[in-house]
Each structure stands twice: as structure tokens, then as C-alpha cells.
Design a protein that fits this description.
Length: about 575
């Protein structure tokens, strides 16, 4: 028994050679969009790519890389030895130098083109050629596909240098944004929300770029100066990085018959998506049309659940364009994101994002992305009016499914088995007028308080919008809520198990829905600031705290991280909002 256990837990991948043995590429090489001459992947000049799944791109290594962090959780899931993250050949590969990787790993990576829709409107003007053929992964370069413990994973460098889609930019990511992305992915996974995963993070000791950023304490919406920042490469991992935008690029080409194989390529990409992301729920034997419909149904279900989960944990994507919407239904692109402190339905951390991508508008933004997803697939059903009609029904049914997911989520946050509209509406009004800290409020509520005093820990007293009579209204609300959840709980039974619910059980369940710790922007700022001085201790501390967001943790952690946002952090660039995610 002891032997068996140690065998199961001991890492099976201790070196890059071990990892190389698991390399297994499912790239559609028949859909390589670059002419033969460019197979070495070193043509970084912005150019139009008219067809195909990907272009070969050799990443540009960062100079003199230094280890910052790796995901211990994910390494353990993959059976990777922690020591590998600091081994010379692993560091070399995941800081962008794949020229020496062992066979059968490939010495050239790849980047993909994609289209852009913003809130359901198609765009091409962001493409330097105005056609949409020059837009895509501008700094994301995939370097490996491997089947590990029966699961296929794609590993992608972010900040891996220029690609044909870089649009004149440098293809780099800075340490600041890479720390944010690395930690946010770790946190999101620990929150139980589907996401691309963090693998590793390396910074250059010598290479820097200039980026616009805020002077300390700046209240201006836009950065007011250029700062020099170290470049970094974080590696993210997912079953695939196919975006709704990529399907759209293929869908638009098919719709406009831009080239003779456009429809065929769309079908191939759809089948590839099904294989990479939906193989467990869509039978390979089905016809293409059947697959399209099941794919749309399944994506709808994943997307609605994803967005309800975002709202459950206080996450705002900030720029929920179709090119930031993973077709596999998980969170992707941690640039303009934020976790809200003060509850505000209009919370939007990114100054460029607009209200359409605000916190509680995310269900509508998701619906627009779903519409674009279905529009992209519809040429595949062009000769089948009944199937097209079914696809349309799936689009029409989005808001109902979304609403159901939201109601279930709100009920769970309140420890109730059903949604009570009047109770919720009054709560939402009170949360805005008080206003409350979103995370702290629901966590305090999870202790089933008998009066409103404990809830006041979440109140931003200085920001009160309607102080008159608030306490009385809160007390009335709490009494009403308690009558549903609290006093009569002993008599209640669980609909599924028939077991009686105790107060302890309800509190326990609520604490698994309402996290105690949330990756607030003002916690990230000191972590990446210290990191820029070569001190990674706060990054690692935050990683440790934020990968157990539901646990109580120590008193010391609670004192430091379970707190209201300080008044001096309000309305400050880089702390309350950001204009730049690169
Ligand atoms: N420094 C950069 N160099 C080249 N391209 C960039 C750079 N910053 C952003 N881009 C490109 O701009 C586009 C939109 O920006 P966005 O912030 O969504 O990208 P990103 O942060 O690189 O994201 P993603 O996580 O979606 O790959 C993407 O095509 C992206 O690759
Ligand atoms: Mg993006």
C-alpha cells in the first residue's frame, strides 16, 4: 500500500527529456497557412496570412532568464518534478529558446490568426491591412503539445516575441502583466473556475521595453509617462487555444468565399475543436452537421456556467471580445481583468473596455460572443434549413439558460436552494447603496450571523450613498433571509439526499461558494513592484494564499489579506483601474 501510494505521487516527468517523450502534435499541418519558404518560422514581418490553421513561428528568447515562479499545483497534477522548473533546459525552453529541445519536440512553434468582434459587431480595422488577414497571436507562441496522463495539453508562451500578427509591436510582455496573469490563472483554478493554467514564469535580467504607465498616485485615466520594464515570459496551458475569433475568421472566409477551400477549412477547424475540447461529449461517429449542433449546445452550457462563475467570484474580464473568448469555454487572456472590491454592477477595471463589458453585463457580452460563434459555424449548415433553425434556437435560448445559471449561482451564494427575486433585488440595492465589499460581505454572511454587526466588516462606511435608515433595512433584509435559510434549517431536508440540513452544513457549503480571499489589484501592485526589484517573495506569498481561496488560513494571512480596500487606493491609476494590459 505504501509503495503503491509513493508510486502514484512520485513525479514521472523529472527532465525535459521525459517531457519530450510525451510530445504529440495534433496540429492541422494540412492547414499550415504559410508558404514552404517560411517553415523555419523566422519571418516576423507583419503580413497577411490568407488561409490555414497556424503559421510556424520560432519564439524569440528573452535574454538572461531568471526563474520567478511555477505552478506547484499544476506540476503535481502533470506529474512534473518541481526541480524541473529551475533546470537549465526547461528554463531555456520556457523562456523562449526552443532551438535545442530534444526530439520529437519541434524546434519551431506556432501562432494563429483570428478575427475580432466587439460585443457582436465584426471588425477588421484593427488589422494593419484592413482585411483581417494580419490579426491574431501577436505575442503568444505555442511551443508544445503533449499528451500527459491521457489529457492533451498545449503549452503557449506569452511574450515570446514577434509573430506575423504583431502589428508592429514588440511581441513582448512585461513582468508586471506577467505576474498578474500568472497569479490570476492560479487563483482562478483554485476558485474552481475553468481557466487556462499557469505553468511557469521567467523574467529577463537584462532585457527591457518601454510601456506607458501611471505616475504614483495618478488619478488620470490614461498613463502619463513611459516606464522601462523587464520583459518576461509566462507559459499558459490549455487543451487548445482556439478562440471564438479563430472560428470567426474561418467562418467569415467561408461566408465570403474568399478562397476555394474556405468552407472545407472551416469544417476542419470545427472538427479539430470538437476533438481537442469536446471529445468526451461529442461522439466521433456523428455527422458534421450533428457535431455543429452539439458543439453549439455544449459551448452554450459551458459559457453560461463560466460567466455565472465569474460573477460568483467577483471577476470581470474587462475586454470580453470574441478573440478573448476561448472556444473551449474557459477563461482566457488575463490582461484587462480585475476582481471587484466594492460591489458595483458597472465595475469595469479596464479604462478601454466600456460599460458593455462591465461586471454584471458579462452575461450579455457572453451572449454576443455566442451569437458570433454560431454565426461562424452557420455556413456549415447552409444546405440544411432545419439544422440552421435549430442553431438559431440555440442562440435564442441563450439568455434563458444564462438567467437560470445566474439564479442558481445567486441562490448558492445565499445558501438557498432556490432563487428569491424580491430578496435578491433588495440585497442588490443595499449592496450598492451601502456599499459593500463583495468578497467580505458574502463570506461574513456564510457564517450565518444573527444580526448585521458582523456584516458591517464589509461596509465601506465612507462611501455610503443612502445612510438614512440603512441599518434598519439591512436588519429587515437579514431577518427575511434568515427566515429562509436560518432558523428553520433543522427542519429542512436536502432535495437530493433527503438528509436534513444543519446550520453548520449550510455555512460549510456557503464557504465553498463564497471565497475568503480574492486577488485584488492593490495586492498585486506591491507583488509586481517588489518583483521588479528582484524580490519574488510577495509573488510567492500571494500564490500560496490565493491558491487556497476558500480556506480560513492563519490569523496573520487574514489580517493582511481579508481587508477592505484602503481609501487611498480609490480612483488611482494602476490600483483601481488600468488602461494597458501589455
Ligand atoms: N506587445 C505586443 N506585441 C505584439 N502584439 C501584442 C502586444 N500586446 C498585445 N498584442 C496583440 O494585441 C491583440 C489584442 O490584445 P490583447 O491584450 O487581447 O492581447 P494579449 O494580452 O496578448 O492576449 P491574449 O491573452 O488574448 O493572447 C492580440 O492579438 C495580441 O497578441
Ligand atoms: Mg487577447
Amino acid at each position: 500500500m505504501i509503495n503503491q501510494l509513493s508510486q502514484e505521487t512520485s513525479p514521472t516527468v523529472a527532465t525535459l527529456d521525459d517531457l519530450a517523450k510525451l510530445a504529440n502534435y495534433s496540429l492541422m499541418d494540412t492547414l499550415n497557412g504559410d508558404p514552404d519558404a517560411k517553415q523555419n518560422g523566422i519571418d516576423y514581418v507583419p503580413r497577411q496570412v490568407f488561409t490555414g490553421h497556424y503559421v510556424p513561428v520560432k519564439p524569440t528568447p528573452i535574454e538572461d532568464p531568471e526563474y520567478v515562479a511555477h505552478s506547484k499545483t499544476f506540476f503535481s497534477e502533470l506529474g512534473f518534478a518541481d526541480s524541473m522548473a529551475q533546470s537549465a533546459d526547461f528554463v531555456r525552453m520556457f523562456s523562449g529558446d526552443i532551438s535545442q529541445v530534444p526530439e520529437p519536440m519541434r524546434k519551431v512553434g506556432w501562432a494563429c490568426g483570428y478575427a475580432l468582434s466587439i460585443f457582436g459587431t465584426e471588425y477588421t480595422q484593427q488589422c494593419p491591412f484592413g482585411t483581417g488577414n494580419g490579426y491574431g497571436d501577436g505575442r503568444a507562441v505555442s511551443v508544445l503539445e503533449a499528451v500527459i496522463k491521457g489529457q492533451r495539453w498545449e503549452m503557449q508562451l506569452k511574450g515570446g516575441g514577434r509573430t506575423p500578427y504583431c502589428r508592429g509591436a514588440d511581441g513582448r510582455a512585461v513582468l508586471r502583466s506577467s505576474v498578474r496573469e500568472f497569479l490570476a490563472q492560479e487563483h482562478m483554478h483554485a476558485l474552481g473556475v475553468p481557466t487556462s493554467r499557469s505553468l511557469s514564469l521567467y523574467v529577463s535580467k537584462t532585457e527591457t521595453v518601454k510601456r506607458p504607465w501611471y505616475s504614483q498616485g495618478s488619478h488620470s485615466p490614461d498613463p502619463d509617462r513611459l516606464i522601462t520594464e523587464a520583459v518576461a515570459i509566462s507559459t499558459r496551458v490549455a487543451p487548445s487555444f482556439i478562440r471564438v475569433g479563430q472560428l470567426e475568421l474561418f467562418g467569415r472566409r467561408a461566408r465570403k468565399q474568399e478562397h476555394p477551400k474556405a468552407l472545407e477549412e472551416l469544417e476542419q477547424l470545427m472538427l479539430h475543436l470538437v476533438e481537442r475540447e469536446y471529445a468526451d461529449v461529442i461522439d466521433q461517429q456523428l455527422t458534421s452537421a450533428e457535431k455543429v449542433l452539439l458543439l453549439a449546445r455544449e459551448f452554450r452550457s459551458r459559457l453560461t456556467s463560466l460567466v455565472a462563475n465569474w460573477i460568483r467570484v467577483g471577476y470581470c474580464q474587462g475586454n470580453f471580445n470574441s478573440d478573448n473568448c476561448a472556444a473551449g469555454g474557459f477563461t482566457l487572456d488575463y490582461g484587462p481583468f480585475g476582481f471587484c472590491d466594492v460591489f458595483n454592477p458597472q465595475y469595469q477595471p479596464w479604462t478601454g473596455g466600456g460599460q458593455h463589458f462591465a461586471f454584471l453585463n458579462q452575461p450579455v457580452a457572453a451572449e454576443r460572443n455566442f451569437l458570433m460563434f454560431c454565426t461562424a459555424l452557420s455556413p456549415l449548415l447552409a444546405s440544411k434549413p432545419d439544422d440552421l433553425e435549430q442553431l438559431q434556437q440555440l442562440v435564442n435560448g441563450f439568455s434563458t439558460e444564462m438567467q437560470a445559471q445566474m439564479e442558481q449561482m445567486w441562490a448558492a451564494k445565499l445558501g438557498l436552494s432556490t432563487f428569491h427575486p424580491a430578496l435578491f433585488n433588495e440585497l442588490e440595492t443595499l449592496m450598492v447603496q451601502t456599499p459593500v465589499d463583495y468578497t467580505i460581505f458574502f463570506r461574513e454572511l456564510s457564517a450565518l450571523p444573527s444580526d448585521i454587526e458582523p456584516l458591517k466588516k464589509s461596509f465601506y462606511q465612507d462611501l455610503q450613498r443612502a445612510p438614512e435608515g440603512l441599518d434598519l433595512r439591512w436588519s429587515a433584509w437579514l431577518t427575511q433571509w434568515q427566515s429562509l435559510v436560518g432558523s428553520s434549517t433543522e427542519a429542512k431536508t436536502d432535495a437530493k439526499t433527503g438528509q436534513p440540513h444543519t446550520r453548520e452544513e449550510i455555512a460549510r457549503q456557503m464557504k465553498l461558494v463564497n471565497p475568503k480571499y480574492s486577488l485584488r489589484e492593490w495586492l498585486l501592485v506591491p507583488a509586481y513592484s517588489q518583483a521588479s526589484e528582484g524580490d519574488y517573495s510577495l509573488v510567492r506569498e500571494l500564490q500560496a494564499v490565493m491558491t487556497q481561496p476558500y480556506a480560513e488560513q492563519s490569523q496573520e494571512v487574514e489580517d493582511k489579506y481579508y481587508r477592505l480596500k484602503a481609501s487611498e487606493f480609490f480612483a488611482v491609476g494602476g490600483l483601481s483601474y488600468l488602461s494597458c494590459s501589455s
